[in-house]
Structures are given as C-alpha cells and as structure tokens.
C-alpha cells in the first residue's frame, strides 16, 4: 500500500509539473492550422482551375475546326439542314469568345459551390479565433490572420461557376449538333463527341487530384476537428451558404439570392402608381381562393389515399423516364485511360533474370537487372521502354568472378488477358564490351590494339540481340506492391550462341 501511494503521489507531481498550454496558445495553434488548411485547399482548387481552363481552351479550338468541317459537309449534302444550322445562335466559336469575356462570365457565375461554402465556414472560424487573441496580440499577424481569404474565395467561386457554365454550354452545343446532323453520317461528329468526353474525363481526374489532401492539410484538419466549435462551421448544409440566421439582405444579394427589395423594385418599375391597386386586387383574390379551398377540403381528404398512390406511380414513371434519358449511347468505344493525365498512365517495373554460363567456358553466368516504364494505351494494352545492366558472376560456385558485361536497351508491348495473365512481346539489344570472346563477331577476329581511341568501342563495341514472345503472370505481394513472372521464348538464341532459348524473368512494381 505504501509503494502504491508513493507511485500515485509521484504521478500526480509529474502531472502538476507538466507545462500546460494556455488558452491563447491553443487559439494561436488553431489559427495556424486553419491558415494551413485554407492555404492548401485554395492552392489545390487554383491548380485544378488552371488545368481545367487549359483543357477547355484546347477543346474549344479543336471543336471550332470540327464544327467548320461539319458546316461544309452540311452545305454540300443538305441545304435545309445547313440553313437550320446557320440559324442557331450558340456555337463553339461563340462559347470560345464567351470564355475570354470576364465581364460576361462574372454575370453567369452565381451558382453555389459546396466546396467554397465549407471554406467560408473555416474562414469564419479563423476570424472568430483571431478575435479571441485581441488587438494587442502580435502573434496574430504572424499566424496569417491579416489574410481573410475573402477575395480569393470570391475569385475561386466565380471561376468554378463560370467553368461549370461553359461546360454546360459545350454539352448543349454538342447535343444540338447530334440532333441536327446525327442522321447524316458526318465524319466529324463522332470526333467531336470523343473530344468532349475525354476533355471532361481529364477535368474530373484533375478535380480528384485537387480533392486529395496532402500531409499538411490532413494534419491541420485533424487538429481543427478536435477544436471546440469547429464542426459547426463546416456544416455546409446551413441555409444561405453557411450564413444561417445571421444573413442580411446584402449578404443574400451578394451570393445570388433575389431579395424582397429587388422584387418590389422590379414591380414598382413595371407597374408604377398602380402597384397598390394590383396588390389589393391580388389580396382579394387570395381571400376568395381560401374560401373555396375550405369548401373542398373535406372532399380532398376522402380521395387523399388515391391521389397519393397515383402520385407515387407518376413519380416512378418519371424516374424510369429519367433513367432512360440519361443512358449514354455508346456511339464510340470509350478508353478510360485517355481521360487521365499523362503521368498517371505510366507504370514502372523492376526485374531481374539470370542465365547459365556457356559450356565452352567463354561466356560467364550473368545477372541482368532492369527497369522499365510502360505507357497504358488502353486498360489492356501497354507498351514501353527499359534499360538493363548485365553483370558477370563467373563460371561456377567454385570460380565466382564479378565483371561488367554491358548495357541493354529494351522495347516491349503487353496485352492483358484474364486472371492476371498477359501476352508480352519485346526486342532487346545488348551492348557488350567489344573484347568478349563469347560474342559471335569476336570468335574469328584478331584481338584489337589497346589504345585510348578504342575505349568507347571496348566498352560497348559488341552487340547481342533478343526477340521474344511470352506469357506474364501478375500477382499481389502487398497492398502497394505486385510481382510479375515472365516466361518467354527467344527466337534469336541460336544466332547469338546462347545456351537456352527460354527467358525467365522475375519482376516487381506498384
């Protein structure tokens, strides 16, 4: 009991001696975390918007050329459809001009964004925490409180809204061309559909990249979620873009809502002095309608169940119709890889293989280490390039001798099949040292003179080729790494004086 009481006293003393963070320090830490989070999220959104704008501008340039081609084809095939085409106001050219008109885009970009609303909630939390420090705190400026992010968030919301509006206009124009020239079998129409589809997929890929948090953002958000009151500011479902019941008429007008004063102003402008009489007449009509509604309320209660059932049937029919309407007609075979950034379509792989020593004692046993990069053309087909290093191991276990045996350049194509199996074909050229006796061209050739002019030739003067086709099996090693096993047949094994035609190669990659 005495030992236990002493241990408890010691623990209590340590707890009392531990430095505790003051409320001001907690507030400063929450300000720093909120600033880090806002910096990271705004930079990610800005990066996404820049990439999406480049993709959209490049798409519009392509669509303008394709649209001109379709116009020429319509003029040659069907003059009536061409006149109908010329009568349409919306075109890819007009959308491209609109995308460069910042004033017009500002008028179109009033759509709400849940992402910006959540960031405004973090901004309000940051402002509240900065108010706790007081005006005399010099650390507030160091933590970034002087940057309220208001202008940046407004700019991001405008860019998001204008980008969505431009994408919607592109979809409308594409649908209009499909309805207009869909039965004419025009060559450029399918290419327009492909360009629009893959551009949208690329934008989605960049949007996913911007949504993935980095380490600093995750750490900041984790800290903020443990701060008292922070979760309430992240509630983006609150009314009026997170302003809640504190929203004023000016706030509502700023985020795009139509206020009562605006409605009264428009009515006054249209009706003038007769506005009062109109309002009185509308009030009398509402009273008459209310009296009639009270009279039929009893009858409505009797057929309420029948109306509900009919309404449910109509709702189900509408849902079925919407599903049929939004079914994508696959006018072309879609390649999901084309919608990804270039670097996301690259696959790196490392491999090694061994070969036995020659029976004549001229060729040593070799270890080949290689690295390759494959480009995924489709989910099944990929092709790539690689480099390899060959090292000699000696003749046998009793005579181990390490030596440099050259570099190898590789090119290959891989077609995935099922259950992790794929067919692979490749060509390799190995650049061996020129004085190796096992090379075919060196067997009946006199030894060259040793001088400095032939140093490069001595290192890479000899060559050997490999042309193979084989089967590769992929298997999972861990959650991040996968292994490969390639078994192939080398068609040039006799020509290069190799001991076996089989290629057995082990590899691994992510």
Number of strands: 8
Q: Give start-end ranges of low-pLDDT stretches.
A: 10-20, 135-147, 236-242, 323-328
Overall radius of gyration = 36 Å
Strand content: 15-25%
Structural account:
The chain is α+β, with helices and mostly antiparallel strands and 510 residues long. It contains 17 helices and eight strands. The chain has helices at residues 2-17, 23-77, 79-86, 92-99, 102-108, 114-133, 139-142, 150-181, 187-211, 215-225, 230-233, 249-254, 260-271, 275-295, 297-302, 304-325, 455-460; strands at 346-355, 365-376, 381-396, 399-416, 421-432, 462-476, 482-490, 502-509. Strands 1-2-3-4-5-6-7-8 form an eight-stranded antiparallel beta barrel. A hairpin with a 4-residue loop joins strand 4 (399-416) and strand 5. It is elongated and about 115 Å long.
Secondary-structure map with pairings?
Blueprint: H1 2-17, H2 23-77, H3 79-86, H4 92-99, H5 102-108, H6 114-133, H7 139-142, H8 150-181, H9 187-211, H10 215-225, H11 230-233, H12 249-254, H13 260-271, H14 275-295, H15 297-302, H16 304-325, E1 346-355, E2 365-376, E3 381-396, E4 399-416, E5 421-432, H17 455-460, E6 462-476, E7 482-490, E8 502-509
Antiparallel strand pairs: 1-2, 1-8, 2-3, 3-4, 4-5, 5-6, 6-7, 7-8
Main features:
elongated; 510 residues; 52% helix; alpha+beta; 17 helices
Brief overview:
The protein is of the alpha+beta class.
């Amino acid at each position: 009991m005495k030992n236990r009481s002493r241990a408890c006293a010691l623990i209590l003393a340590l707890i009392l001696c531990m430095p505790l963070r003051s409320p001001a320090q907690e507030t400063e830490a929450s300000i720093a975390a909120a600033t880090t989070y806002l910096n990271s999220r705004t930079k990610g959104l800005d990066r996404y918007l820049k990439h999406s704008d480049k993709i959209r501008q490049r798409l519009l340039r392509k669509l303008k050329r394709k649209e001109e081609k379709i116009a020429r084809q319509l003029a040659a095939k069907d003059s009536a459809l061409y006149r109908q085409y010329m009568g349409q106001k919306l075109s890819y050219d007009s959308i491209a001009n609109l995308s460069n008109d910042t004033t017009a885009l500002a008028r179109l970009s009033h759509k709400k964004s849940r992402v910006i609303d959540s960031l405004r909630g973090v901004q309000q939390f940051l402002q509240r925490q900065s108010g706790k420090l007081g005006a005399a705190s010099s650390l507030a400026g160091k933590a970034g409180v002087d940057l309220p992010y208001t202008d940046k968030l407004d700019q991001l919301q405008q860019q998001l809204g204008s980008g969505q509006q431009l994408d919607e206009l592109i979809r409308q124009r594409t649908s209009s061309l499909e309805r207009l020239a869909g039965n004419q079998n025009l060559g450029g129409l399918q290419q327009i559909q492909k360009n629009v589809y893959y551009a949208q997929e690329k934008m989605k890929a960049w949007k996913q990249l911007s949504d993935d948090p980095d380490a600093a953002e995750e750490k900041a958000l984790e800290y903020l979620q443990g701060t008292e009151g922070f979760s309430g500011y992240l509630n983006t479902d609150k009314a009026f873009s997170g302003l809640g019941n504190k929203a004023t008429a000016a706030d509502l007008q700023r985020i795009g809502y139509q206020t009562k004063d605006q409605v009264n102003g428009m009515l006054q402008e249209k009706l003038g002095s007769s506005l009062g009489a109109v309002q009185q007449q509308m009030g009398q009509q509402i009273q008459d309608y209310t009296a009639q509604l009270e009279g039929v309320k009893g009858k409505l209660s009797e057929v309420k169940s029948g109306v509900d059932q009919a309404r449910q049937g109509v709702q189900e029919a509408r849902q079925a119709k919407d599903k049929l309407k939004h079914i994508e007609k696959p006018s072309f075979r879609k390649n999901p890889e084309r919608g990804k950034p270039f670097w996301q379509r690259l696959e790196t792989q490392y491999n090694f293989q061994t070969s036995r020593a020659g029976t004549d004692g001229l060729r040593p046993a070799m270890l080949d280490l290689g690295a390759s990069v494959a480009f995924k053309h489709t989910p099944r087909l990929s092709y790539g390039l690689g480099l390899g290093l060959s090292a000699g191991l000696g003749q046998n276990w009793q005579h181990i001798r390490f030596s440099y045996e050259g570099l190898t350049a590789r090119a290959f194509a891989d077609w995935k099949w099922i259950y992790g199996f794929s067919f692979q074909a490749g060509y390799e050229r190995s650049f061996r040292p020129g004085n190796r006796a096992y090379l075919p061209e060196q067997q009946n050739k006199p030894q060259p003179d040793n001088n400095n002019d032939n140093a490069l030739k001595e290192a890479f003067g000899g060559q050997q080729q490999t042309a193979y086709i084989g089967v590769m099996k992929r298997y999972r090693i861990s959650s991040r790494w996968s292994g490969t096993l390639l078994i192939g047949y080398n068609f040039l094994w006799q020509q290069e004086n190799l001991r076996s035609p089989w290629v057995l190669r082990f590899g691994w990659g992510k």
